[in-house]
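User: structure tokens for this one?
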Amino acid sequence: MEKEILIEQHEVLKVEYIKLLNDKDVLISWGKPQLEALYATRIGVHQIKLLQQQLRIKALKRKIELVQAINTDQPYDVNEIELIVALELSNLEQQIMNQTSEINAATSLLSNLDTPERSAELKKLFKQLAKQLHPDVNPELTPEQMELWHKVQKAYKYGDLEQLKAFELVYEKELNQLKNNIQELTADEILLRIEVLKEGIKILYQQIAEIKEQYPFTIEENIRDEEWVQNEVDGINNQLKQLNTYESELVLHYSTLINNTTS
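Assistant:
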């Protein structure tokens, strides 16, 4: 097979490989956080209310249990009971606080998303630079070129479109040199690269399929469905109403126990 045909094949496979790498990165770095953020702000915020109420009920039940276990002939300290229960349930309270922080972060993420046009330009430019600098498709990168690749990755991670544009201009000579490297390889060397790329493409397809089978991609259709979201929220609110009644009963019971024991 002529060398020029091999080079053409190599370039086609390189483009596909970089596209799949980008697709995988978009799923992990963009799609996953955004779907998790959508779930957190649409449903998670209501689940936090439910968890908080369940924690209050758990605390009340534990306080009642402690009071009932005390010999009524002996004095006891209500503040001490409150402290015991607070310490026992501190881990649960911390978990709720952590989830609340995650929801706040999710709200911030969704409020600071780039415009679709800017995001598309960012991804397009990154793909172009990755085609020339990604070590998987350019194994002979110099230390300087590898350092440039790390800078490109960092700029892409933080959505710095202007930085990527600057890299493309400032390092134009180095990037053009990379384009010419393939011409210096023998036909056998190019053929080996082709086989490596084919295997890499196969693996990436498998990895992308596996990612899409995991949460939160398994609920992507649901979380974008307003009716499904509303049904989930309604279900949580119904639980809250039922627990409100139960909580009120526990508060009354606990107050009665304290008053009877201290009187």
